[in-house]
Every structure is written in C-alpha cells, then in structure tokens.
Amino acid sequence: MFFPLARGALGLAARGLQRTAARQVHSKHGPDFHDKYGNLILLGGALFCASIWSYVVTQTGIEWNLSPVGRITPKEWREE
C-alpha cells in the first residue's frame, strides 16, 4: 500500500522538476552585471590594493619592527 503512494509522490516531484528545468532552458537571458564586469572589477580592485600597499611600504616611513637579530648587541651582565 505504501509503495504505490511513494511511487506516485516521487513521480509528481520528478514531473515538477522536469517542468522547472524546461522553463529555465527556454528562458533567454543576456549576460548580467557579473558576467560583463566581474573580472574587470576584480582586476581593478587587485591593482588598487597593490598600489596602495606599495605606497604605504615605500613612502610612509613606518617602522615595521623587523627582526633585531644582528643589529642589537647585548649589554654586559651586572651581578649585584
């Protein structure tokens, strides 16, 4: 008794999916914003980011606290 009912429900679900797929295949749409300009905006953002960071690194004079190894000599130890 349950098997024919389940088979019928699956048949209805499959039929609904087939109709949805058929509607999507027949709809004609042009390229959207991301298809047209997505890569251009991505490259522009990457170029902008790289240019800003190159300016910050070379022109602002920020001390980046790099490793002091070899630049600092230890003081003599005093015993008190």
TrEMBL record:
Pathway(s) it belongs to: Energy metabolism; oxidative phosphorylation
GO biological processes? mitochondrial electron transport, cytochrome c to oxygen
Q: Does the keyword Ion transport apply?
A: no
Keywords, A to Z, come to: Membrane, Mitochondrion, Mitochondrion inner membrane, Transit peptide, Transmembrane, Transmembrane helix
Question: Cross-referenced Pfam families, in alphabetical order?
Answer: COX7B (PF05392)
Family in the record: Belongs to the cytochrome c oxidase VIIb family.
The name under which this protein is listed is Cytochrome c oxidase subunit 7B, mitochondrial
What organism, scientifically named, is this protein from?
Podarcis muralis (Wall lizard)
